[in-house]
Amino acid sequence: MKIAIIGLGLIGGSIAKAIKDNTNHTVYGADIQQSVVLSAKLIGAIDNELDDKTLSDCDFVIVALYPEDIVKYISEKKDIIKKGAIVIDCGGVKRNICNIGNDIASQNGFTFIGGHPMAGAERSGFASSFGMLFSNASMILSPSADIDITTLQTVKEFFLSIGFGYITIVKPEKHDRVIAYTSQLAHVLSSAYIKSPTAPEHHGMSAGSFKDMTRVATLNTKMWSELFIENSDNLVKEIDTLISHLQEYRDAISECDSNKISALLEDGAQKKAVCG
């Protein structure tokens, strides 16, 4: 199978490497930085550079760009993408991308499936990519309601073959609602937490809790800004909920109400036990 990967950053580069490590598929890659394409080809992460001619011959097209660029790329290449091809994006939000992607695909004879690999790292770029990034991770797919079941099965088998542990099928609306909590809120909280004036004094007086809380404060600011804005309705709700809960803890601690503090902590522990 011939596979196109557009965007050879952490995610796209890792997908390319995983494909070459685990399958016999032919991979064509494109990136805004020509040096990245050359590096990917040199180490065997891709077989060759992607151009419009090879794009028109690819069975799978994986678009690993920022949300706005995903929509732009599919819109610009809709007449070049092979009829019957499967186009999958790797964006961290799904509603807008899926709405536009499905519409373009239906009008141009190919299949679009929203995707979101649930894996990442604090670093970005091709130099940080590695083929084991997705080992046992979840691949979220948001197909249209009328997708051909055989096509969906082909996509599921493909991602499992390159190392993903399981596939999660979810509607774009639910994806964006839940991901606002499980991913985006964590990045907002980490970025806000590290801004305490006490933070520079942590050396020698911090352990796992500090590392866990600050790990994702290092991020790709442009990409995450786009993700926050495209999912602002869901993310604002989660931030408001967090502020409300923090206010409860703040008030109980300020009042030195040990019973209230214990109750809040016990409630949190119980909810963690249920959520896993």
Q: What tags apply to this protein structure?
A:
6-phosphogluconate dehydrogenase C-terminal fold; 2 domains; 276 residues; 52% helix; 8-stranded mixed beta sheet; elongated; alpha/beta; Rossmann fold
CATH architecture of the largest domain: 3-Layer(aba) Sandwich
Side by side, the strands of the main sheet go 3-2-1-4-5-6-7-8
What do the pLDDT scores average to?
Answer: 96
Instruction: Give the H and E element order.
Output: EHEHEHEHEHEEHEHHHHH
Please tell me about this protein's structure.
- By secondary structure, the protein is α/β, with parallel strands linked by helices.
- It folds into two domains: 169 residues, Rossmann fold; 101 residues, 6-phosphogluconate dehydrogenase C-terminal like domain (6-phosphogluconate dehydrogenase C-terminal fold, Orthogonal Bundle), CATH 1.10.3660.10.
- Helices cover 52% and strands 13% of the residues.
- It has an eight-stranded mixed sheet, with helices on both faces.
- Helix 5 links the parallel strand 5 and strand 6.
- It is elongated and about 70 Å long.
